[in-house]
Write a structure and sequence with these properties.
This protein has about 110 residues and is mostly beta strands. Helices cover about 5% and strands about 25% of the residues. The chain is built from one helix and nine strands; from the N terminus they run E-E-E-E-E-E-E-E-H-E. The protein has a five-stranded mixed sheet with strand order 1-2-3-5-7, with no helix packed on it. The protein has a four-stranded parallel sheet with strand order 4-6-8-9, with no helix packed on it. Strand 2 and strand 3 form a beta hairpin. It is globular and about 35 Å long. About 5% of the residues have low confidence.
């Protein structure tokens, strides 16, 4: 999957110019297209990141999670083997060691 696009009439989901899937009001990041590569900066409007949201994103090299995010669900970064760093704010309430799935070796910066 390289991209998600939705019609304006869709009442449940929305996407951005990169094809990242969000809930309609863009407060939850639901799914990152596996085909995206490089660094990704999560938008400031996001407060929650869903289960397996970045799962299998092989081309991803780093992720910056803004201060607005206070909840990250299980296995969010599972099978992201090329991720070198994930930057979190100090406001994350979830246990960051449980969200990376099999990626325990990724440096998690708070």
């Amino acid at each position: 999957l390289d991209n998600c696009q939705f019609l304006m009439e869709n009442t449940k989901y929305s996407s951005d110019e990169y094809g990242v899937l969000f809930n309609k009001d863009k407060t939850e990041l639901v799914r990152m297209p596996e085909g995206l590569a490089g660094a990704y900066f999560i938008p400031e409007s996001i407060t929650s990141i869903g289960d397996y949201a970045f799962c299998g994103c092989w081309g991803l090299t780093s992720v910056t999670v803004p201060d607005s995010v206070t909840s990250i669900k299980a296995n969010t970064f599972q099978d992201c083997s090329n991720v070198e760093t994930i930057k979190f704010s100090n406001k994350i309430e979830d246990d960051v060691h449980n969200i990376s799935g099999r990626l325990i070796m990724i440096p998690i910066v708070k």
